[in-house]
Structures are given as structure tokens and as C-alpha cells.
Design goal:
- The structure is a single chain.
- This protein is α+β, with helices and mostly antiparallel strands.
- The chain contains 2 helices and 10 strands.
- Helices cover 17% and strands 42% of the residues.
- The chain has a 4-stranded antiparallel β-sheet, with helices on one face. It has a 4-stranded antiparallel β-sheet with strand order 7-6-4-9, with no helix packed on it. Strands 1-2 form a two-stranded antiparallel sheet.
């Protein structure tokens, strides 16, 4: 058995994966666990490139489709407030503000498909 610590939208989960005769199930959790670790590197590199963008990037934790935008540029948001609704694996996920601030940019539109790590919005 292997233990993993996974963080999803700021919530930390301890996951234990049992290795056994069923080899088909083991690769999926490993791929899911390693994808979030690779994703944060891209947003940090992308944030400085957007000169007019805010200083805090709000990124997609997983690939999906944008279902709704709950904030517009110039709106003040509190940490944990929903900014965007992302559909992934047939579930609606609220993408929340990582800190208090003001929305500087919204980089997506309703209906857009995004990859994990894509910058969805920026905050000042």
C-alpha cells in the first residue's frame, strides 16, 4: 500500500492506494496524483508573461469546460469566494479566489475547454 497526500481546491486529503493483482486500477490514481504536482509549474511561468494581468493567478486544477463566470474584472473578492464554475468528469467545480483581492482579468469564456494549470483569471 502507498499513501499519498492530495490537495484539491485547498482541501488536503490523505489517500491510501492498495497495490494488488488488479493492475488496471493502480495507474489511474498515480496519474491523478502526479498531474496536480506538474500543473502548478505552468501557471507560475505564465503569470509574469501577462504584463497587464494581476499578480495572483487563479488556475484550473484539472482539465474541463467553463460552465459559468461568477465575477467580473474590478470586482472585489474574498478568499474562498467562487469566481468560475468548471465542469470536469460530469461534476461542477467552483474555482475559488486563493486570497482576498480584486479581479484583474478573466481569461476564459463560458464554453471554453481548459487544460489543468491554465490561468483562468488573475487577482490584484
Amino acid at each position: 500500500m502507498k499513501n499519498y497526500t492530495i490537495t484539491v481546491n485547498g482541501n488536503v486529503y490523505e489517500v491510501t492506494v492498495e497495490e494488488g493483482a488488479s493492475t488496471g486500477a493502480a495507474p489511474a490514481p498515480r496519474a491523478a496524483a502526479s498531474a496536480p504536482k506538474a500543473a502548478p509549474a505552468a501557471p507560475k511561468a505564465a503569470a509574469p508573461a501577462g504584463g497587464a494581468a494581476g499578480s495572483v493567478a487563479v488556475t484550473a486544477p484539472m482539465p474541463g469546460k467553463i460552465l459559468g463566470i461568477k465575477a467580473e474584472p474590478g470586482k472585489a473578492v474574498a478568499k474562498g469566494e467562487a469566481i468560475i464554475v468548471l465542469e470536469a468528469m460530469k461534476m461542477e467545480n467552483e474555482i475559488v479566489a486563493p486570497s482576498d483581492g480584486t479581479i484583474a482579468t478573466i481569461n476564459v469564456s463560458v464554453g471554453d475547454s481548459v487544460e489543468a494549470g491554465a490561468t483562468l483569471a488573475t487577482l490584484n
